[in-house]
UniProtKB/TrEMBL annotation:
Pfam families: TrmO_N. Belongs to the tRNA methyltransferase O family. Transmembrane segments: none annotated. Keywords: Coiled coil, S-adenosyl-L-methionine, Signal. It comes from Nannochloropsis gaditana. Residues 78-226 form the TsaA-like domain. Residues 1-22 form the signal peptide. This is Uncharacterized domain protein UPF0066, YaeB-like domain protein. Residues 25-52 form a coiled coil.
Amino acid sequence: MPSISKATYLWILTIAIACCSAIKCLAVQHDLKEAREKLRREEELRNMERAGRTKAERRLRCELKALIRGQTNGGVCLKPIARISSPFKGRCGTPRQGLLAPNARGQIKLQSGICKTSLDQLNAFTHMWVIFLFDQNTNWTDALCSESESFTYTAKIAPPRLFGKRVGVFSTRSPHRPNPIGLSVVAIQAVDEKAGVIHISGVDLTDGTPILDIKPYIPYDVVLEHKVPAWVVCEDLPAWQLQVMPEAEAVLRELATERGSPFYSTYEELRALLRDVLLQDVRSIHKGRGTVVEDKSSLKGGANFSEPFTCNIDDIAVEFVALQNAIQIIRCSEEYRNALDPGPEDNKLVIENKRKSHG
């Protein structure tokens, strides 16, 4: 067998290496082409799926809107984001406007399902809007129990400052409205983001009121040129001072230091709250709002409006009379419950009982 020269061997080896490289290059090009084709097919499939999903979601929204419109006459479901703790356990004694009672304190605590970081930077503002539900409305419980779409609300109501005269409900801030939603401005005292709690003042909400939303108060909310009826800005109430009888003062001083209120720990703080609230005359028009003991008009239809009036403020029964020049607190006690002014838990019982009676 003839021997292969070294040069020939190297030539054959070079050709073999070149052929292997060429084959490997062709294989890589084939794999790359298949990968590109696979990527193109996946992108097309993803675009088709996205288009189909978007179309399906659009169709689902349309059907859902039609379903809601058909079942609830276009209504929507709102869930509370928070609850408020305040010194006012019932409607009687709750300020009609929070800014008129700057010493009325409260705490808004976020519900467990609301992320606490939602409060980030809220402490950079001094005031905020609170959107809430009038959950203690008596006509609201009637609306919940009614299955008829024709359930109606009183179109005209009598604001306290009009002393019996009626105007359209949408011309007032009355809680008795088709949708029992309220709006208040409160002052931000502190924000505890870790606990999910906002400490506020200027509160005009009852304890346990569901909060639907909060929004910061900004300069653009101020309307410089505005017009309101005279009865909105002018109220013919006497220029009262607050007087606390010695016996009542002794009880208030004791309660302020011993009962552990989350809002007031001194007599001076508690007295400031009572001054803010009582000097605005918490009595309704049917209970003698604006009348005084010496006023003969306080005897109307056999009702003696000169009798002492009692309300619950920070779990204290405050009994007072309206004199010519002063609101005079004559008695105070710790235990108080107004059976005619149910709280949130009582409202639940009222609703259940009404539903049973309707059923």
